Amino acid sequence: MMEMSRLEKISALIEDAKIYKISDLWKRKPSGLKFNDTDALIVTLKTSDGDIIKETFYFCLKPDGTFNVDTVSKDGSHARRLRLARFLKHYIIKDNVREYNLKKEVETLRGKEVTVMKGDSYDFIYVP
After folding, report:
1. From the centroid of its chain, how far is CA 28?
2. Residue 7's beta-bridge partner residues?
């Protein structure tokens, strides 16, 4: 029987957050990403024990700097956007994510404290 990795909650600070076009990160879009996943928010964190963690959120940035939480399809793309919306709502803005100008406000993510789930083989931002 396979043993599950133990997870531990620890705090971390956002050291950097940047938005990239997916086409600037890869020549070919990674499998699993859909046509409507065009942008990536890469968040770099430093945990309380000194580890550096990077987490990527995929979405489609609109010209006005906001992003659609809803997608045409109800697949992984939709789940990824919902996770980004929950992350922003829980840690950053506390109100209407649909009107949040992520492009303009990405710099304000720096210095925010978040909770990280640390495991034996992987770490990720805790998003309720």
Report:
1. 21
2. none
Range list of β-strands (E), 1-128: 8-21, 39-47, 52-59, 113-118, 123-125
φ and ψ of 82, to 5 deg: -65, -40
Among 56, 63, 13, 49, CA closest to 32? 56
**CA dihedral sign, ordered 68, 41, 14, 80:** positive
Each domain of the chain, given as residue ranges in start order, spans 8-125
- DSSP per-residue letters across 75-96: SHHHHHHHHHHHHIIIIIISS-
Residue keyed to tokens 């997916």: 22
Q: Give the chain's length.
A: 128
What does pTM read for this prediction? 0.88
Provide the edge-to-edge strand list for the sheet that holds 52-59. 52-59, 39-47, 8-21, 113-118, 123-125
Phi/psi zone of residue 120: left (φ > 0), alpha (ψ -120 to 50 degrees), beta? Answer: alpha
At 7-19, the pLDDT tens digits run 889 999 999 999 9
The answer to whether 93 and 6 have CB atoms below 8 angstroms apart is: no
